[in-house]
Amino acid sequence: EFGADTGGKILKIYNHTVSSNISTNSTSYQDTGLTITLTPSSASNDFLILADLGVTRHASTSASMFVQIMRDSTAVVAHGGGYMGYSGNTNDRGFYPSFFHHLDVPNSTSSITYKVQAVNRYSPHQWAYNRSHDGANNASQGQGVSTLTLLEIKG
Fold first, then answer.
1. How far apart, in whole angstroms, are the C-alpha atoms of residue 74 and residue 114?
2. Which of 4, 27, 126, 141, by CA, is between 20 and 30 Å from 61?
3. pLDDT surpassing 60 at residue 137
4. CA–CA separation, 70 and 68 (whole Å)
5. Rounded distance, CA 127 to CA 83, Å?
6. Which string of DSSP letters, residue by residue, matches 40-68?
7. How far apart are CA 55 and CA 131, in angstroms?
């Protein structure tokens, strides 16, 4: 029946934006500041996760980073070392937006925290989020903004 209350309807949109400068040279996963805590309205609902990171590389040697999306303490999006955010060569500096999308089915009506974590694969080289390409945190040089958006979809 047309208009029947069936699955697939977007029930709620959650969004968190981080515009502050975040940088790391850690070789263990670190929180990026992109975090959303929510309580699903039904255990049968799904969540479409959209993570967009404004990544800046300003190290002068080869480097790469990996990203994972967590639901509480469980990585719901990780391939081996995580999603590849960027891999660059010597003096390959600049701004590299990274986008990660995943459909999660938490099967819960308890409070859930989703967050994005990243790791630098080659310490001591540094990655930064939302920083201008020259590393000077200069808005006129094109700073990024990172977002985590969750769409609760009726199951």
1. 9
2. 141
3. no
4. 6
5. 15
6. -S-TT-EEEEEEEEEEEE--SS-EEEEEE
7. 8
Question: In which band, very low, low, confident or very high, does the pLDDT at 62 lie, cut at 50, 70 and 90?
Answer: low
pTM over 0.70: yes
Task: Tell me which residue of 65, 53, 56 sits closest to 123, measured CA to CA.
Answer: 65
Cα 51 to Cα 53: distance, rounded to the nearest angstrom = 6
149 burial (CB, 10 Å; 0-12 / 13-18 / 19+) is middle
d(CA 19, CA 147): 9
Rg (CA), the chain: 17
Q: Is 3 left (phi over 0), alpha (psi -120 to 50) or beta?
A: left
User: What's the mean pLDDT when you consider all of the chain?
Assistant: 77
- Tokens 């029946």 found at: 1
Task: Calculate the alpha carbon distances from 2 to 54, 74, 147, 154 in Å.
Answer: 41, 38, 35, 17
Report helix, strand or coil for 33. strand
